[in-house]
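Data deposition worksheet. Section B asks for the primary sequence of the deposited chain exactly as it was used as input, without tags or linkers unless they were present during the calculation. Section C holds the resulting structure in C-alpha cell form. Section D is free text for depositor observations; keep each observation to a single sentence. Incomplete worksheets are returned to the depositor.
Section A, Depositor: J.P.
Section B:
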Amino acid sequence: MFNGLDRGNRWRRYALLLGALSLLATVGATASLAAKTPSATSKINPIFTYKKADREAHLYACAKNEGAVTLYTSSSATDASLKPAFEAQYPGVKMSTYIATSPLVTRLTSEEDAGKHNFDVYNDALGNIPRDNKYFQPFWSPYMAKVQPDLTSPYYLATNGYVMSGVYYNPNLVAPSDVPKKWTDLLKPQYKGKIYIGTDSTAPAFTALLRRTYGVGYYRALAKQVRVLNVSGRGVADLVIAGTAPMGIDMSSSYYQRDHIVKGAPLLLQLMNPMLGQFQASSISAHAPHPCAAMLLVDWYMNAKEGSKVLADLGNALPFKNAAILPFDIAGQMPQSKWNVISQTSKHTWTGFKDYYQAYNSWVDLYTRYFINGG
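Section C:
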C-alpha cells in the first residue's frame, strides 16, 4: 500500500516542515534558546500577572464572558481527551483547535505576519519556534515555580514531554526475540525495509542524535534501511497497530500506555539508550483574542487534578521538579533510572553550532537529503 509513495510526493508534504524551518532560521539567526526578558517599560495586560487568591475564579468569570479559547497544538490527543476535559471543567468556555505537526509553525507565523491574530495559546515542542516577544505575550503563572528551571520563562511554561525511547513492534508480526535490542542492530540485513519512520518535526533531531552517537556512516546506512512515510510518529504507531508496518522508530513512549496498557493494542516497545526527550510548552499570543481564557487554559494544563492528570493518564512525562521520566514502567525492560534521555534542546545535541535553530536547520537538510531523497 505504501510502497508506491514516490519521492516527489514525500518531498511535497515534507516541504511544509522545511518552510517552517526557513522561518526559524531567519527569526533565530541571532537568538538562543533563552527567551527575551520583557523590558521594564513593557505594557502587560494585568490578567497575565494576576496573583490574588481568587485567581482561578477570576479568570473563569472573565473567560466565560469571552466564551471561547483557540488552541494551536501538535498534540494528537487534544480533541479526544484534553478538549472535552477542559470544557467540562469550565462550562461556557468553548475550545477551538488547530492540530498539526509540520505545518503548525508555518500557519502561526504566516497568520501573525499578515496581521491575522487567530490563536490564543500555542502548545508545541520547545525549540520549534523562538519563544519571545515577536509572537508571544509574557505572563506569570503560579506553576512556574513548580517545574524544572529550564522548562519555563516569561514566555512559556512546559506542560508535558515525550521520550523517543526505542523500537515499537507488533508482536503478531515480530517475535520479541527478533526485535533489535540496540540502535546498531537496526543496520542488520534482516531489518531492511521493515522499520518505519515518519516525517514529523522530531525525526531530524532523533536521527541527528543517532548520528552524533554512532557516526556519519551509521546515519547514511540507517537511511537506506528504514522506510520513510509521510505521516507523524502517531501515524506510524497506527500502522504498527494495524499490522501494516511491523516496526517503527521515532515514536513517543507515551503510546505504550495510551495504546498498549489502556487499550491492549498490539504495540510493544523495546527500549534502547540513548533516548531523545522533548517537552511541549504553552505560550500565549501577543494579540490573544481571548486573554482571560488563554491564561485559564495555560493554568489548567498544569493542575494536577485537571489537565496535568489527563496528560499523565495519556502516558506523558510531566515537567515538575523531581517527577519521574514517565508515569509508568515497561515490564521486563530497563528501569527508568538507567534511561539515558537527552533533551532535544540541550546543548549536548547542538554542540558545534551557533544555536539550536542553526543545528535543527542542518539536521533537516540532512534528513531531507538522506532519508527523504535517498542521498
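Section D:
Confidence is low (pLDDT under 50) at residues 1-34.
Residues 89 and 305 are 10 Å apart (CA to CA).
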